[in-house]
């Protein structure tokens, strides 16, 4: 294992590579293509909602270099999303019960504790979802590392043609 920055595609780096480095980097990138691609069919272990999320996100991930090696992280992401949706539903039910108990001036402390616990669980699920999303390229930052940055080149050409607005 190497230490340092996360690897980026050759086309997305600004380093001045030697010919040997370019060849080595291109060979490593070609090896990535040899892995079996991510399965379009969700695993049977996912819930109905998890399978919906799998199918929805799979369409978006087809262009990214993901393989079957990434499947477990992707399945975990879908499971986390499905579980968080169920948790939100349970929170809404508990919130309704707590509101009704407040209106009847008979606050049920056990319900309030359950509601707080569920909210804390949901917060933890959101953190895990964010972590998994970053691993499979669902965040803008992670996609920027994977996709070549054409906008910077376009901006430079614009500045070359028209100059900067510094006076």
Describe this entry's structure for a reader.
The protein is mainly α. The protein has a domain of 112 residues. Helix 2 packs across helix 3 and helix 3 runs antiparallel to helix 4. The longest helix has 33 residues. It is elongated and about 75 Å long.
Task: Note the topology.
Elements (H helix, E strand, L loop, with lengths): L18 H15 L14 H14 L9 H33 L5 H27 L4 H7 L3 H13 L5
In a few lines, what is going on in this structure?
It comes from Macrococcus carouselicus. It holds the Pfam family Terminase_4. 65% of the residues lie in helices and 0% in strands.
Query: Which regions contain 5 or more consecutive residues with pLDDT less than 50?
Result: 1-5
Cα end-to-end separation: 49 Å
Class derived from helix and strand content: mainly alpha
Our Rg estimate from Cα atoms comes to 23 Å
What is the averaged pLDDT score? Answer: 78
Shape: elongated
Number of helices: 6
Q: What is the strand content?
A: under 5%
The largest sheet is: none
Total E-strand runs: 0
**Percent of residues in helical segments?**
55-70%
- Helix-strand pattern: HHHHHH
Protein name: Phage terminase small subunit P27 family
Pfam families: Terminase_4
InterPro entries: Phage_term_ssu_P27
